[in-house]
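Example pasted here:
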Amino acid sequence: MRRLSFRSLRWRFAFWFGLFILLLAIGARAVQFRMAVELLARDIDAQLWARLGALKAQQQFAPETLLDPTLRLGGLFLPDIRTATDWKPSGVLRVIMPTVSRTDLAEPAFPWFAGIWQHDGTTVTTLGLPPGFSWEPGWHDRTDRLWTQADGRLRLAATAGLDNTLILIGTSLAPLHTAERQAIFFYSWTLAAASLPGLLVGWLLLTRMLKPLDGIARTAERIRQGHFDERIDVAAADSELVGMAETINSMLDRLDAIRIMQSRFNADVAHQVLNPVHGILLQTDVAMQRPRTGEELLHTVTSVRGLAGRIQSLCEALLTYSRSQALEPTRLKTVDLDPVIDAAVEQTASLASARGVTVDSSSSSGVVRGQPELLEQVFVNLLTNAISHSPVASTVSIETRERDGHSVVIVTDHGTGISPTDAPHIFERFVRGDSGDSPSGGHGLGLSICQSIMQSHGGDVVHRPTPGGGATFEVRFPRAGAALPRLSQP
């Protein structure tokens, strides 16, 4: 179960989707938090600066009310903003920053303190100074400026007053730090609370997105159970999956065709093998019915040996056919066709001599990429067919040519040729088109093997009638450097 969960696309998507959303939310909240804190800090500075300006005006125009917390002198100063505005903090602000949004009139709207000192540090007057707060000579260098105390607890502003005095006003930054902590706490628990729904939404979204893939999996399962005609419904597939669905359907069509061909191939092989096996059993059963003379036994053994040789020939042909199907392009090497053709001519020399046929080999040197043993088998099969179907005292020719950058080997005979009805099927397995005085007993794999070998080399074998009678086969090789296919059909 653990292994499945780690390998689950849904789990991985939900995790990474949730993590992405979480990081995005953290980034957005961090920016929002930083902006809120900076705006609050600027608001503190604005209020400090306004209070400092009010104190300076009060020192000049109403020194008798200096440092009055209410800042009232006739109509010169406005009332407290909390009593003048109709704005009320929203519920969101009350939740996020309750300290900042307080409207309790019993508490000062803006807790500030102030003091006026002579240049020598003599105190003129003070209002609400924090415990331990006292004059510092360095304040003279900071007139008309705002700054934060070194310990970070107080925000101060100073300006030069009348009669060689220094006016200083300040406020505690504790409410700001409290507001920061409240905002961090709010952002943290809301992000934590949103994480689980985010993961759930990611899971549900991917589950919905994977429904078409589940349908493909169900189709594949039905095919595995034996419903080989099942296919993926391309019309109902999403546009992103149409290409994959069409490719899979094409692959299934190909596999189904291969399955049918393999079944037929197995049946054909069984039929071809059973015929000589039945012959052997029949010969031995007859021989065992009564005592036989030596001559009769010799005849039986000779017949059985011929049938066994037929089985051997069929097995060798099937082995060659299988090798051509399993040929890897990486195993091909540069091959000179002349020695390969010469070896094929030498192999078929005894058959040509027995039938009184002359083999004429004339070729220009051709260099191709291939496997010499398989290519030799192609030429042996073609020469054997040509010799077998040629009349006595005729000539079979084999020559190599260069045509448009391709090497072509042409095998020509002047025999009975191939009838138009048989021509479309001559490259099919176990199809024999023997006619005239050609020897019988072939297994019908020769031309099929030739075509399979050449297709595995990226080439082909084609047939055309010989002018005046006979058959001509062209073995065509690919152009140098062309990509070679990998065949998968049986």
Notes: Residues 320 and 449 are 7 Å apart (CA to CA). The chain has three domains: 2-193, 231-326, 329-476. The longest strand covers residues 395-403.
